[in-house]
Amino acid sequence: MIKIGKKGYTPLGILWIIVEYVSLIFFGLCAVVPVISCVITAFKTSEEYQQTNVMTLPESWLNFDNFTKAFEAANMGRAFLNSVIVMVCVLIVSVILGTQLAYVLNRFKFPGNTLIRNLYLFASLLPAVAMQVTVFNIMSALHLVNSLVGYIIMMCGTDVISIYIFIQFMENIPVSLDESAIIDGASYWTIYWKIMLPLLKPAIVTSCILKGVGVYNEYYCANLYLMDKKLHTIARCLYTFVGPMGSQYNLIRAGVIISLLPALIVFILCQKQIYSGIAAGAENKEEGEYGFSRKAFRRFIARRYDMDGLQKLALETKEHLCSTILPFWKSLRDNENGGYYGYMDFDLNLDKKAEKGCILNSRITWFFANAYMILKDESLKDEASHGFEFMKNYCFDKENGGVFWSVNYDGTPRDTTKHTYNQAFSIYALSSYYDATGDKEALKLAEGLFYLIETKCRDKEGYLEAFDQTFSPAENDKLSENGVIAERTMNTLLHVLEAYTELYRVNKSEEVKSCLHWILDTVAEKIYNPELKRQEVFFDKDYNSLIDLYSYGHDIETAWLLDRTLEILDEKEYTDKMSLITKTLTEQIYKIAFNGHSLSNECEKGKVDTGRVWWVQAETVVGFVNGYEKSPEKTEYLKAAEAVWEFIKTYVVDKREGSEWFWLVRQDGSPVEEKPILEPWKCPYHNGRMCFELIRRSGNGKSRKNC
Q1: Average of pLDDT values for 8-13?
Q2: Helix intervals (H) in 415-458
Q3: CA 228-233-238 angle, 5° bins
Q4: 98, 230, 477, 544: which could join 162 in a potential S-S bond, CB 3.0 to 4.6 Å?
Q5: 254 alpha-carbon distance from chain centroid
């Protein structure tokens, strides 16, 4: 019976008790229900999981198939061993370093003591991923990536929270103990080892619990630094059953339960010591002499682990650039005949006597020049020079001017067509090569091609497409598709814009700027369709569209390339004129073509081509990141870029040794075997540029070190 009165409960008190109990029950259920759901799901078959509610009991509690499959498929035995090794090593080193640092900072007063404490505090404000960019460079340079030893060394960094705990606890240890020991002849090391360390046992227990749980559950760095499956930790191995196309939650939850068992056993056996350690560690003062509270400290720690999506993308794509893309294209260097080999079939058979597309060679030269400017690796500069020499000596028509469409493996002319698209990509490569090396011959060649395009490859209405060797008009079969022959194309105009933007960036020519203005006006007035909020693709000479075609890849690529041109021009008039177009293109692609993990190719007359083309996925990542940077409130764009990158890593990247990316995969991620790995159009221009753009946009592109 509840009494009301001086010694009983008031109505307000009763209400408060009800609120307390309801809150406790609610938050208790929030903690318990997911665990119950996890246990229930772990015993369900895949069919049961898909057909029943998550809280529906399994048909059999004796179904241990999920546990067996999870343990074997994820190699959890090895992962447990790796996690234990990492955790033990990290805890030992962290405790030793943390207690020693705390001892020095607490017991010794010297100039800079407060500064050191504040520097540790300041370090906790830095986002973890922003720091990982530098850490990854160091680890890579020391050859510690994909090494358990390297991962342990990296994880041994003493957390600020551990130092805080140790310092706070030491403040309750009388200094008289130190003084008595010194009188008895003890050294500072003896005081630390025989007095401080034993007395810090409760604080060490608290620190080890916090650090140990963090290390045991750590996924991000394990995923980044431990690529070899044999090195996976327990948290990383659970991701075996997760992918962009879906997740096997019954296996994941079985794996979660298995991973919890060691921690549960340790807790049951050591709960008395754990509780006593935490209780003793909690007796410290609310404020230390260094002037920050626990509440403030928790905010600092939360900030420290706030991961920036763009930094994460930049770090991962940089690693992919160094480990996969660069080695593949380096391996295609033809030291006997010059340039780079031109064909590799799906089965990775390299044809050393295949034709060498001049576009392919230009794009490879551009790729290595930009890779050198980003990574500062002299070997990349040498690769760019190799491409430039082949371009200069074999791709240029020394009699009639311009660049051939292709040459034979030995450099003799093969297809002597002169295409505006091809001339533009040569300008693009030569301009970047000049910027990377300072070779004025490259700039002179680029400027010569600019004047050639402006005098021989256009009429009053705009740029034309194909010509024969002497620049007489020819049929545009090379950049016409979908059953039409176009006299003007959006694609050629786009890449003339791209080439001229790069040329203007390095030479600041007023003539080039004037041409950029004309192209931007043409895109806004003739290429962009404001009613359909897309670009038209193929045109006759009067810019009449020839086909109902929505090229998803070109539109997302155009959105960010236009913004790039606007950035280089830095003119408010054109920025105001074109920005709405670039935002609309991005928004429409997100709404219409993005399905949550990747981008379809195109839509012709209402029929969608659902193939996932390699270059379309690469341009989608950059396009959505660009859209996010232009409109930071559109966080869905950044999430979309991250999702497409996950799709690329899982399905588009060819995991076979000696390969790179598949040309085309189906909507379910399976590769189309009819498409080669390398051919005149399959180059490092799109995926390499994706990596470069993410590195630059993350703010880490100006002083990058070698891979």
Answers
A1: 72
A2: 420-437, 440-456
A3: 95
A4: 98
A5: 29
Residue pLDDT, tens place only, 352-408:
999 999 999 999 999 999 999 999 999 999 999 999 999 999 999 999 999 999 999
In our burial notation (b when 16+ CB lie closer than 10 A, e otherwise), range 551-579 reads: bbbbbbbbbbbbbbbbebbeeeebeeebe
**Would you give the end-to-end CA distance of the chain in angstroms?**
75
Segment 343-347 long-range contacts (CB within 8 Å, at least 24 positions apart): 343/676, 343/678, 343/679, 344/676, 344/677, 344/678, 344/679, 345/676, 345/677, 346/671, 346/673, 346/674, 346/675, 346/676, 346/677
Length of the chain: 707
* Residue with the two structure tokens 């203005």: 517
Q: How far is CA 447 from CA 224, 440, 496, 504, 506, in A?
A: 43, 11, 13, 10, 11
DSSP-derived secondary structure letter, 331 = T
Q: Which residues contact 55 (CB under 8 A, 6 or more apart)?
A: 33, 36, 37, 40
Tokens of 328: 């593949």
Per-residue pLDDT band for 417 (boundaries 50, 70, 90) equals: very high
Report the C-alpha gap between 72 and 257 in whole angstroms: 14
The dihedral over CA atoms of 602, 603, 607, 609, expressed in degrees to the nearest 10, equals 0
Residue 334 CA to residue 318 CA, distance in Å, equals 26
> What is residue 151's DSSP assignment?
H
